[in-house]
Write a structure and sequence with these properties.
Elements lengths: L2 H17 L4 H16 L4 H13 L6 H14 L2 H13 L5 H17 L2 H18 L4 H13 L8 H10 L3 H7 L1 H21 L16 H27 L5 H18 L5 H34 L2 H10 L4 H17 L4 H18 L4 H12 L10 H9 L6 H24 L2 H9 L4
Helix pairs in contact: 1-2, 1-15, 2-14, 3-14, 4-13, 4-14, 5-6, 5-12, 6-7, 6-8, 6-11, 6-12, 7-8, 7-19, 8-20, 9-17, 10-21, 11-20, 12-13, 14-17, 15-17, 16-17, 17-18
Subcellular location: Cell inner membrane
Membrane topology: Multi-pass membrane protein
Protein name: Tripartite ATP-independent transporter DctM subunit
Amino acid sequence: MSVELITVLMLTSLILVIMMGFPIGFSLAGVATVFGLIFVGPHIASTFMLRMHVTLSNYTLIAIPLFVFMGIVIEKSGLAGRLYDAIYVLTGRLKGGLAIATVLTCAIFAAATGVVGATVVTMGIISMPAMMKYRYDKPMASGAVCAGGALGILIPPSILILVYAPVANVSVGALLIGAFVPGMILALLYVLYIGIRCFINPEMGPSAADGGVHYTFWQKSRMFCVSVLPVLTLILAVLGTIFFGLAAPTEAAAIGAFAAVLLALGYRKLTAAMLVEAAIRTARTSAMVYLVVIGASFFTSVFVRLGCGRVIESSILGLPFGPWGVLIVMWLIIILMGCFLDWIGIIMIVVPLFTPVAVKLGFDPVWFSLMNIIVLQTSFLTPPFALTIFYLKGIAPPEVSLADIYRGVVPYLLLMLAALLLFSLFPDILLFMPRAAGLI
């Protein structure tokens, strides 16, 4: 059987198994096992054991449970509500102020937790009733929560980045530092969009009555110091130690986890029951991620050993579109896959195939990785497999329909594409911070 046919059969089998509903990790490992036994032989089992050992002994991946634990503790400390209240006081008098406060709170909370689901659910519960009370446009309110929550995969510390970096064989620190600027730029674009749209049509986002009017300057300053400053300090503690070379990402994750516990203690939310729940949820989430990473590592090993990697590489390089045309084709594939798969499945399938091609085309691997991570945000907003939409619909007020949420995310998808164009024209926006930190 030709290598080309094996490649087609292997990828088709994987897609079919995933679409049938089997977990990503088992799908990857299962397809690799079947094709490995048929075309390599029984000794392929030793490859599986080797890949498992390499994954479980990967020092960088230890940061995953640490960041997950940090995010869960922060979620349980009631930080999101405090953040929203403080930012609402500062923005409530503006047209669209509640939606702006939602995006800004999502951005900060996402940076503290790195988990999209926690951000969308928590902010949806807190902000949606307030925006419905002041008769905000339903798509406007829904889009702000979904798009703001999706920033959690981009703004560090991000679990997605910790999974992506080893797969792409790039520096975790470079991606964590590099993702901060595009995350802030996207948040700023979202805020500008809401502000301009509500300024043109005030009925879409009326100002909240008495938003911050009865608060003195000292009261506002106290709210900022109590609610916003602690989480900003935590974020800087994590990213600052990486940027200045004081700690590797794993050590920075440990610092963040410890700081999150201190933060919960300061807010008087730290209890034995909360720590036990956080530990159990961390173990479950981390086990899922490790299972997928092990399965993907085994799949990639078999795929490359059978020569399928060369087939994909030569096929993509043979496209008659030039380097940028090939790049756009790869991003379109990621966007299309995002309609049906979650982010971890997309990373494990396409990143090992696309990254070598991008490097051969002359693109910086760190820049290419950061652009892919931005593109991967679309997987949380594009139907039918749009996790943020499902999360929000599950907790949104009854008057908010699924159609409202779908309409609400469209402008933010367009803003993501605009940001991609900006970062393509000016790649140093993404590479400045990693270079300044000496990570590339």
